[in-house]
Structures are given as C-alpha cells and as structure tokens.
Amino acid sequence: MKLCVIPARGGSKRIPRKNLKDFCGRPIIGWSVVAARRAGCFDQIIVSTDDEEIAATARNLGASTPFMRPPELSDDHTGTTAVIAHAIRHFDAAGTPPTLVCCLYATAPFASSDDLCAGLERLQDSDADYAFPVTRYPFPIQRAVRLDEAQHVSMFQPEHFATRSQDLEEAWHDAGQFYWGRREAWLAGTPIFSPRSLGLPVPRHRVQDIDTPEDWLRAEWLFKAMQAGL
C-alpha cells in the first residue's frame, strides 16, 4: 500500500492556526490534499492531527482522519519521523501495512502532483530509503558570511574569497515539501538527509518556506504569479 500522511498539528506559534489559514482561496492544507488526490498514486491519503477542526476540514477536503494524534506526538519538539512511524503502526495494527509512505507537509502549496509521482518513481527504481525534492541555493554557500554582535563581517570559508563563482561546487537544499520513504526506514528512524536518499531537483521559484508572516506573504505572491502563468 502507498500511503500519504499529511502532518498537521493544531499548535503554531509564529503563524496562529497556520494549517487552516486561507492561502489564495482555500485553507493552506487544502492545496496539499488536492495535490495528493490529483497525483493518483496513493491508496490512502490521511491527515495526522491532534486538532478536531483540522480533522473536520481535512475530511471535507477529501482526506481521511483514521485516528487523532496523541498529545505526546503533538508538541513543538516532535519530529516528522516519529509522526510518520505512528501512522504506519496504526495501519499495521489494522491489517493494512503500507510499504511506501509519503510525508506531505500541510503548508506546501508548491508541491505538485507531478513531483509526487516523480518522487515515487525515483524511489521505486532504486534501493534508496527516501526520495524528496531539492532546489539550488541562489548564491554560493562557500561565500556565506556571519555577523557578530557589533555587525562585523567574517566569512565562513575565507579560503574561497577569491574563488570564481563558476569554480565553486553547486549546493542544494531541501525544498521542505514532501518525503517519500520505505516503511522500514521510517520505522527505524533512518535519517532522511544521508547518502541513502535521492534528490528530485525542482526550480527555485516553486520553493518557499512558510514559517513567518513575511514568508507567507512572499509565498502568496509567488503562487499567484504561477497561477497567472507568469
């Protein structure tokens, strides 16, 4: 069985009720549910939440909520892996063990159905533990600088001060949208960022973290431009 798990707890400090906040016409979690449904590669799409309002919204959007997430897995310190492992164990106990599981974030409106299918295909065609979207850094990370309390500048890698940009290794980062993984990897707590994972390159204009109000505003600008075909 191929399972999609959308983690969506009720607590959110920087953007209150973030998972239910309207994003370009629908609750932001709705865009993740729609992408998963359009992908057509899942046997079940569920939302893992501790919040009754989120659960009701998820059901109205077409996802299922076969359980309520326990409080010990709903605080600020609970990691993604533990939440997905909990969902897997629920289906194991129900006699329908999933084999491939995708964690799709509730605040990932740029995750596309095509990317979800491509991630699944990439994982199935390999012996990797995970597959997830990545994108390029827009600036060489070797030239990153730090500021001290007095705003003085120093380089993280001063040996690259005079290195040409085209001679520096290109760097990538997690797109923060979804992670396909094998059940054994999720249950074992295998690290996602490791040589046992595969990256799925996606363009930078379809990647935006949404952790602050400023992030949210920028994400809406990008999303509206994409919807308009710009």
Show unreliable segments: none
Write down the Rg: 19 Å
Binned, the helix content reads 25-40%
Oligomer category: single chain
Largest sheet entry: 7 strands, mixed
What is the H-and-E element order?
A: EEEHEHHEHEEEEEHEH
Mean pLDDT across the residues is: 95
Question: In one word, what is the shape?
Answer: globular
* First-last Cα distance: 38 Å
How many strand elements?
11
Secondary-structure-based class equals alpha/beta
User: Can you count the helices?
Assistant: 6
Percent strand equals 15-25%
How would you briefly describe this protein structure?
The protein is an alpha/beta fold. The protein is built from 6 helices and 11 strands. 30% of the residues lie in helices and 20% in strands.
List the helices and strands and how they pair.
Layout: E1 2-7, E2 22-23, E3 26-27, H1 28-39, E4 44-48, H2 52-61, H3 80-93, E5 100-104, H4 113-124, E6 130-136, E7 145-147, E8 153-155, E9 172-174, E10 178-182, H5 183-188, E11 197-201, H6 213-227
Parallel strand pairs: 1-4, 1-5, 6-11
Antiparallel strand pairs: 2-3, 5-10, 6-9, 6-10, 7-8
